[in-house]
Amino acid sequence: MSPTPCPDLEVLFAELEAGEGPALDHAAECEACAAVMEEHRLLENDLYRLADPLPPPSLVVNVMARVAESPVPQRREVWTGLAILLTSLGVGLGFLFTNDRALGRMGTAFAASVRDGRMFVEGLFSGAHALWSTAGLAVACIVAFVVFTSLFGLKRLVGSPPPSLSEA
Amino acid sequence: MAIGMLMAEDAAPLPWQADVQAARKGDPSAFEALVRSVQRPVYGLALRLLQSEAEAAEVAQEALLRAYQNLHRYDDARPFDLWVLAITRNLCLDLLRRRTKVRTEELEPMKEVLPSNEASQEDGAIAREERQSLEAAMETLSVDDREVLALYYVQKRTTKEIAQIMGCAPGTIMARLFRAREKLRKKMTPAEEETK
Predict the structure, then answer these.
(1) Which residue spans traverse the membrane (chain A) (predicted)?
(2) Low-confidence ranges of chain B (pLDDT < 70)
């Protein structure tokens, strides 16, 4: 028997995976630990021999019958989003056309945004021109990186959304 | 590696990709091929978790139908069977949560239903009685323990695949496997329990 106390089994098996450790050294000299490890090995052999049961023969037929009744909803979320967008737009426009004050405020806001927008765009172009003339290469690299990552992200988002298994 | 605890973690090829694409376009025969390829592990997992043939068949049907209805959301880069197994697992767990009583009358026939690989392994097949006692001991374990044992030993999934199905870190699977196996060992050898 080993002079050291027997280690926790979880530690022993963790070290077995790692391939070394004091618990494994202990087990090499401890009959009790060696016996437990042997029991686990035999149990694993038995477990590996188990197999999944055959499903009922009607399973495929039943699934396909239900599939036939349920056509694939193509991009259902797109249509849902579109419906929400159109509804919101309709409600907003309806409110504006039935309310003179709201319509007036919208016109004023639009005129102000055109005036401020022009100044903003001119300032933006001026700043971009100054930036380009002082650090053109760095800017080009950053822009290329941003465009690339955005396109990649967009492709992932549109092409194959991560399968939320719990939602599926 | 000792006692065969680790398996290859290499990514498997995706032979179902063409069928998935065809099924998305509305080809029912392509989806039928997918159903046939995954029906056994799907039903097997459901049966291990629910321990009721009727419920397992019902859940397997529902899982496959949901897979069809959500096919446009499936990421082609990931194995199709793992995706469907994860759906099956979630449905089983939902059902187990809703259960108000244990249906013990359905546990007995399970021993006759769950087979072994002995027909395909001419040498070294375990005896029918041993297999049944092993199945019976497994049935007494918790859902979590049954699940991890079934996926690893019965379905021969890698720890990485099991982690994908269960939605947890791959590093935790081996520890969960060990604990489940240790509980099973104690169930199988109650007289020798706590020998250390």
Answers:
(1) 78-97, 130-154
(2) 1-14, 100-127, 190-196
**Tens digits of per-residue pLDDT, A131-148?**
888 877 887 888 888 898
B167 token code pair: 């939605």
* Nearest beta carbon to residue A44 from set B4, B44, B70: B4
Interface predicted TM-score (ipTM) over 0.90: no
Q: Which residues of A touch B64 (CB under 8 A)?
A: 63
The tokens of B81 are what?
A: 């069977």
Contact present, A29 and A2 (Cβ < 8 Å): yes
Contact A67 B65 (CB under 8 A): yes
Classify B15-115 by CATH class. mainly alpha
Arithmetic mean of pLDDT, A45-50: 88
Choose the mutation target among B42, B58, B72, B90 for the interface with A, i.e. most A CBs under 10 Å: B72
Per the listing, tokens 């065969």 go with: B4
Domain boundaries, chain A: 9-48, 75-159
How close, in Å, is residue B101 to chain A by CA atoms?
24
User: Is pLDDT above 90 for A21?
Assistant: no
CB atoms within 10 A of CB B168: 13
User: pLDDT for A35-45, tens place per residue?
Assistant: 888 888 888 88
Contacts of A162 in chain B (CB under 8 A): 75
For the domain made up of B126-189, give the CATH fold.
Arc Repressor Mutant, subunit A (1.10.10)
pLDDT at residue A161 is higher than 90 = no
Compute the radius of gyration of chain A from its Cα atoms. 34
What is the DSSP track for A65-120? HHHHHS---TTHHHHHHHHHHHHHHHHHHHHHHT-HHHHHHHHHHHHHHHHHHHHH
| Cross-chain Cβ contact B179/A55 below 8 Å | no
Q: Where along chain B do its domains lie? A: 15-115, 126-189
CB-CB neighbors (< 8 A) of A167 in chain B: 70
Query: Of residues A162 and A85, which shows the higher confidence score?
Result: A85
